[in-house]
Amino acid sequence: MCRQFGVGPPTFDHLPKERGSLGEVANEAESAAVRTDKSDIKREDGENMKKRIFMQESEATAFLKRRGRRSTKSKDEVNAENRQRLAADERRREYYEEQRNEFENYVEEERDEQQERNREKTEQWREYHYDGLYPSYQYNRHHI
């Protein structure tokens, strides 16, 4: 294994060791807290807030691991995933429809401009080559 050429799995030996990493904290903690707003927390309501925010380790474990990898999903879970998938499909469909409409408008404008330039050039050519007869003399000749 040659580290100087980037061969082999990465190692993090060169990084300083941190105390209190997330893994250590998770192993030592019995519960977790989420702070909602700084103005909500007061010293006299400290115990009430702890009761509202903290949950037991068993509840947290059950919340984070609702089911094993091989167990079947609940109907609510399947329905939620399907709703998310359908919403993503709808957003994707709307995005591509909008892109297609913008491109079609661009192409239509370009085509109109090209036709206008072509019409102007044709009119200029006809004015320059007009011989006073309509239809012009060139197209009225009788071929023998």
Automatic annotation (TrEMBL):
Residues 24-49, 63-124 are annotated as: Disordered. Keywords: Coiled coil, Extracellular matrix, Secreted, Signal, Sulfation. InterPro entries: UCMA (IPR031386). One of its GO terms (biological process) is embryonic skeletal system development. It is found in: Secreted, Extracellular space, Extracellular matrix. GO terms for cellular component: extracellular matrix. Residues 35-49, 73-103, 114-124 have a biased composition (Basic and acidic residues). Its main location: secreted. It comes from the Eukaryota. Coiled coil: none annotated. May be involved in the negative control of osteogenic differentiation of osteochondrogenic precursor cells in peripheral zones of fetal cartilage and at the cartilage-bone interface. Belongs to the UCMA family. This is Unique cartilage matrix-associated protein.
